[in-house]
From TrEMBL:
It comes from Jiella sonneratiae. This is Tetratricopeptide repeat protein. Coiled coil: none annotated. InterPro entries: O-mannosyl-transferase_TMTC, TPR-like_helical_dom_sf, TPR_rpt, UCP035836. PANTHER family: PROTEIN O-MANNOSYL-TRANSFERASE TMTC4, PTHR44227. TPR repeats lie at residues 144-177. Residues 1-31 form the signal peptide. Keywords: Repeat, Signal, TPR repeat. The keyword Repeat applies.
């Protein structure tokens, strides 16, 4: 049974802001990790990103990249990868400290400045993050990752209209890029336009190899509209059992923040 959309609320806004922060995703071009046991780093757009590492592998990756970073703290690839792993582990202050050192060593590198901006945003320093991302951009050679990253930061400071202009500029450069579509979808969550959010998140989720958080956020948006069974199916589809359960648990946790889990289940029983 379908339930009406939730009314706008402070709690929904807080939830959406947290998701928008996470939805920076790979917008600034996080380094990727190969499937090899050595955990070698590549800079290709494709492949498995650090953000797709199973939770059980994060501790090992932290140790591996931490040791590599300690040996060569000025290395761009190692530093960016270590910072991304630290963010996944929730160690945002340490991630920012790593990216500060990498940025000092590579002051004019756009990838580094973009990742530094991401670390600043994750640590809550949004004005400095915005300044850093804008400094990395060049008007004659606009980078879609930087446009999307700037949009995500603007969303977090309440400038969603300006953010969406940037997302669409980024899509002009990189059509159907899932990270941009995901950020655009989360922008609409911030203004409680869940139908538009679902549209863009569905488009992103259909793209092969998309970050698993896109599917999680799509499931959440569907769940917030009252379609609980569909949301759970989206959260666990085509995943191995352990990851499926992790995604289902994530969905329950997020909906519980809105006090919607029990409401939806009760309505299903009554329906």
């Amino acid at each position: 049974m379908t339930v009406r959309h939730l009314a706008p609320s402070f709690r929904l806004k807080r939830l959406a802001l947290g998701l928008a922060a996470a939805a920076l995703l790979a917008a600034q071009g996080c380094a990727s990790v190969s499937g090899e046991t050595t955990g070698s780093v590549s800079r290709a757009d494709g492949g498995a990103t650090i953000s797709s590492l199973p939770a059980g592998q994060i501790d090992g990756a932290l140790q591996s990249y931490g040791e590599a970073y300690q040996k060569n703290p000025k290395d761009k690839g190692t530093g960016m990868s270590y910072a991304a792993i630290l963010q996944m582990a929730g160690r945002n202050d340490q991630s920012l400290a790593v990216m500060q050192q990498v940025a000092i060593a590579n002051p004019n590198d756009r990838d580094v400045l973009a990742a530094y901006g991401k670390a600043l945003a994750a640590a809550g320093n949004l004005p400095k993050a915005l300044e850093t991302v804008r400094r990395a951009q060049t008007p004659d050679r606009p980078d879609w990752r930087l446009l999307s990253a700037e949009g995500a930061i603007l969303d977090q400071i309440g400038q969603s209209d300006q953010a969406r202009v940037l997302y669409r500029k980024a899509l002009d450069i990189r059509p159907n890029e899932p990270t941009i579509l995901s950020n655009l979808g989360m922008s609409y969550v911030l203004t409680n336009d869940l139908a538009s959010a679902e549209q863009y998140l569905r488009q992103a989720a259909k793209i092969p190899g998309v970050d698993s958080r896109v599917r999680q956020n799509l499931a959440l948006v569907v769940g917030l509209q009252g379609r609980f069974d569909e949301a759970q199916q989206i959260a666990v589809a085509d995943l191995p059992p352990q990851q499926a359960e992790a995604n289902a648990a994530y969905l329950r946790q997020m909906l519980a923040q809105q006090n919607t889990w029990s409401m939806l289940k009760d309505k299903e029983k009554r329906g």
